[in-house]
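Dear Dr. V.,

Thank you for agreeing to look over these. As mentioned in my earlier message, I'm a first-year student in the group and I'm still getting used to reading structure tokens, so any feedback on how I've presented them would be very welcome. I ran two proteins. I've put each sequence directly above its structure. The first is here:
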Amino acid sequence: MEFICHVGTGEGRVLRQVRRAPDEQALRTELEREGLELIGLERRLATVPRPGRLGLGRRNVPLDVLTIFAQELAALLRAGLPLLQSIGMLVNRQRHPLFRSLLEQVQADVRGGAELSDAFEQAGAVLPPIFSSALRAGERTGELEQVLLRLVRYFRLLLDARRKVYTALVYPSVLLGLSVVMLGIMSLYVVPRFRLFYASMEIEELPLLTRLTLGVATTLRDQLPLALLALVVAAPFVARWRRSPAGEQVLARLRLRLPALGLVFHRFAISEYCRSLATLLAGGLPLVQSLEISTRAVGNAWVRKRLEPAIGRVREGQTLRSALAASGEAPAIVLDMVEVGETTGSLDVMLTNVSEFLDEEIETRMQRLLALLEPVLLVVVGGMVALLLISVYLPIFSALSRIQ
């Protein structure tokens, strides 16, 4: 539940904030704990994503585009330009159609008196949830420029981690794809032609291996049109199921159970969680609100669901360390670093350190996996090709031996 509240600070300033809390009493308790005095309060209607207003469907804004925007906006604000003028300059320079339309709407909202964070929050699912929340923290503390620079560092680290994982998987994926194509061509077009060749040689009985190979190849060739039709019909339903909450949970769970790669995906999700939480805490957001946003920022649906109860435990008064331990998803190193951060009052620093440690672990595991995967793929694919060739040439060798 969201509330629009006006609060007074100890310095005598009045701030307008958008807060999330289960109810009004919980919100008042949270404000009192932060030393803020509640002046006015109204319940906010649920935010409806606006991709339809942009006319460009449900696509997301690429992270690299958002990174460049945040960096340029921070530079313009540092130079002393007003916020509205800075946004106008960036709208004119923006080339990405979805983000340009979004910025035009944001510019209109800010001109109408809305805060920058509220204007971006109206974009809904096309932007990462951390973006508008971090901006709100910057507006609250008067450090919008510093918050933008923290977002730039966060996005760059996230892009770098994703790039390393994807780059490491390129070679095995290309090798496996080419192997499947080669084996498919041989099975569908080359092997069946040998049946006519065997008939012209008047070979009475083919070896068992050859009969099995010819049977499989003939079946694949005859059923290929039906299989392709089934794929075309099933594709929209599979795509819809993948986007559903149940489909996301199943696929995320299967991804975590992959041999060797499952642990990499898990560590990446935890690193993403720790880094976003550190960014929000450094920007001045309260712990509970930072946990809510960081949990939504986790890409793996299964890990995200397991981390959600930690929010309620922290709200009830438990330490973050005990709440994460109860989820069963945080590695021991994360729990230890969080405990140190809570004890010393430097939780954001410890979370940043542990996310960097997890990134190094991911890179090391990927290097080891590639060192093992490449020779295994070569041996498996080479063995399949050799078996295929032996099966089709075996009758010829048998016939030549009988002639001699």
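The second protein is here, in the same arrangement:
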Amino acid sequence: MASSVSDQDVEDILDAPSALQQTLALQQIAKCDIFTGSEEAVGRTSWGNVFGGQVLAQSLAAAFQTVPEGLAVHSLHGYFLLAGESGAELLFEVERVRDGRSMCTRVVKAVQRNHAIFLLLASFHSSEWGPEFQTPDKELMAVVVARGFASGKLPSPEELLAQGVQPQPCNEADNLEATESLSISSGDHWTLRYMRHKGRLPDGPAGLHESIFAWITDSGMATVVCKPHQLDHTFSMLFSLDHCIHFHRPFRVDQWLLFHSHSTVSSGARGLAHCEVFTLQGLLVASVTQEVLARVPQDVAARELQKNNTSLRSKL
């Protein structure tokens, strides 16, 4: 006997917490600024290490639980210290560094098996008015033209879907496909794509959209660092060293956002990737920077180093 589904049932299904929402629902210990979290809701990673974006997002969620109402994160800087273990519980220790009238600062240490694996410094600011500016449209259009779009206009998500572009999870850690990404184009040191949380999200709790956004931003940045070298080198180790986000304006992460990622420099086995994030209306809402440790095999590095030293001696 078939059962009918009411409109209210559909609403309940749409509003059911996603795997990422559940992952951010940390447990507080003894009413202290200490929280525990895991990846149980999203599942373990296929490569055996906990996803760095998850640790970043959970650290930010932990910080938000200690911040007075009315303050929003405006910047964060995270350092990846050790590769975490997938499947092992995480402990988040929050330090209330400063509470001012309009700003506050938090430091979060993520611990696993008694070892610090990640450190987050986050600053929060109450909403206030100020004059606004962002890169002029004509300069942004010049970038779009340089990326191969002569009209200076990018295809919309709807146009890409109509063309048959298939949405993909934002990264390999999204086992349950709670996020989606549409590739627009890519080049030798850059990518353009739309990304969002697939399901509708509530407005709160505080920091929900920013924390899921932080999770999404750790998607493909290391790959962008490798792109300029992909014809000449393979990498034996890729490891995010630090991750920085500046939040410029409020936004919803369950709506399509444009991510323009590009690498600016690689040197000394480290590379830097930048990402500007825009709404579909063209507002710059966040800027992201990630430094990546990118090592080639040891024999290749030794050979190249010897070659460089020989070349230097010949010039002296």
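From my reading of the second output: The two ends are 88 Å apart (CA to CA). The domain at 8-127+166-315 is CATH 2.40.160.210 (Porin). Does that match how you would interpret it?

Kind regards,
E.
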